[in-house]
Amino acid sequence: MAAKKHIKTQSSYAFESNTSNVAASQMRNALNKLSDSLPVDDPRRARFDNELDSFFSLFRRYLVDKSSGSTLDWDKIKSPNPDEVVPFSVIEKQPENISNLKNLAVLKLNGGLGTSMGCVGPKSVIEVRDGNSFLDLSVRQIEYLNRQYDSDVPLLLMNSFNTDKDTAHLIKKYSGNRIRISSFNQSRFPRVFKDSMLPVPDSFDSALDSWYPPGHGDLFESLYASGELDSLLAQGREILFVSNGDNLGATVDLKILNHMIETGAEYIMELTDKTRADVKGGTLINYDGQVRLLEVAQVPKEHVDEFKNIRKFKNFNTNNLWINLKAIKKLVESSSLQMEIIPNQKTISRDGQEINVLQLETACGAAIRHFNGAHGVVVPRTRFLPVKTCSDLLMVKSDLFYLEHGALKLDPTRFGPNPLIKLGSHFKKVSGFSNRISHIPKLLELDHLTITGNVFLGKNVTLKGTVIIVCSDGQKIDIPNGSVLENVVITGNLQILEH
Q1: Dihedrals phi, psi of 374, to nearest 5 degrees
Q2: What contacts 218, CB < 8 A, 6 or more positions away?
Q3: Where are the alpha helices (DSSP H) in 121-184?
């Protein structure tokens, strides 16, 4: 029987606080016990140990950052240099080189559940347009690309332990399509009790809510550990286009692909112009002569309003990323990727009580500072079309867009930016949304829509300008079939019976 493998401590950190030393030592011991909950000859043991090892490195860095109070010096923050943020208009003029597709692979971040929209299972299976789910549209886009250019661009899905089983079942239906789909799991890290700073799980098989997927910054290590990175390199793939699975605007752009190859950049982040709805989005800065991503969580409280000023910080990260695969391999193998840690507080239920827990996450956008030649490209807003809420769902289902080869295209007769849509709590879940808006209204001339309360829309409703519908508690508002509402405010109680 092989000797027990415990969590590697590697080189020790110099802690500024004895409390941090104690917390790290206690965590290491607890993780060693957690590791031993699986027999050493269990085929899952090696991966489990690697994940616990990675988690311990993250936890240790968190303690160091916390004890040293390391924060960004606001006075050192500067706007990016012209070569660090490039307008898309410059790239757009360059000719397309179809042969570059042989270097490309596409990855969708597919670890999220649809719980925030009241759905069970992976968010990627929510129906968003004409019977198609997020995943259906991604497959259709890549399949059309391969058919149009006679290419063989593969699609990868990074799942979490929450979405892996369902996704594996779902992708079987694409077996006859002209597309190669593979998936791998991101890491499974233990949540930490906030009071004791010890892991929530006590064995490999502890309840699901004892664990968490550690954010999309885990992409690099998981891609490497899964063997998918080496597989892509063996195929001659050099560039990975990464995007959120719910961003319907994130399609393959040959201009950006060509620009990346011509410039030799190892990392390109797509940015787009901020609106008042995007004031919290991370933005690129120059810090100590290096391009970095600045998130609102890193901003000192006294400068948050300044950060949200769309005149000073004009654009934000769409999380559409183009990354060199050889550079990923080099950085992972040298343990050089150390993204800023995002502490995320959650609660779990134990014996009828709500317990505060902590999960430490990272974002792949923060890795930009580790890559050579890294820079941002300011792309049109059409490349950022996320569906996070049912308010977003209403917009992408409407006549504002039409579907073309799996991609949503804005109606050319639309003037101005996308409308601002705010639906109240009655519309938070897809079931409530579908019940109250069973027929999608026409929104082509809409600027702003607010609906709160028990409101139902009939068939063939048209909304124009600014429309505000506020239903009083305990009341009901029915908008009749064929209604045209333009620049109106409807409040109270409205029920029109048709005869």
Answers
A1: -65, 140
A2: 186, 187, 362
A3: 134-149, 164-170
Any binding-site annotation on 123?
Answer: yes
330-366 b/e (C-beta count within 10 Å ≥ 16 → b): ebbeeeebbbbbbeeeeeeeeeeeebebbbbbbbbbb
Q: What's the helix, strand, coil split of the chain in %, to 5?
A: 35, 30, 40
Cβ–Cβ contacts within 10 Å for residue 404, how many?
11
- Token pair in block for residue 252: 């393959």
Residues designated catalytic: 388
Cβ-based neighbours of 428, under 8 Å, separated by 6 or more:
117, 118, 389, 390
Q: How many CB atoms lie within 10 A of CB 303?
A: 13
Worst-scoring range by mean pLDDT, 23-32, 254-263, 288-297, 479-488? 288-297
Evaluate whether 263 touches 372 at the Cβ level (below 8 Å): no
Give the CA radius of gyration of the chain: 24
Q: Is 215 annotated as a binding residue?
A: yes
Question: Is residue 388 annotated as involved in ligand binding?
Answer: yes
Q: Which ranges of 1-44 would DSSP assign to H, the alpha helix?
A: 18-35
Spatial neighbors of 59 by CB under 8 A, at least 6 apart, are 24, 27, 192, 360
Phi, psi at 403, each rounded to 5°: -95, 130
Contacts made by residues 147-152, CB under 8 angstroms, sequence distance 24+: 147/178, 149/98, 149/101, 151/98, 151/101, 151/102, 152/102, 152/180
Residue with tokens 């789910």: 133
Q: Any idea which residue has 């692909």 for tokens?
A: 257
Using 50, 70 and 90 to split pLDDT, how confident is the model at 334?
Answer: very high
| Cβ–Cβ < 8 Å for 347, 293 | no
Distance between CA atoms of 421 and 389, rounded to whole angstroms? 10
**What digits encode the pLDDT tens for the residues 418-455?**
999 999 999 999 999 999 999 999 999 999 999 999 99
pTM of the model: 0.91
Cα 428 from Cα 28, distance rounded (Å): 41
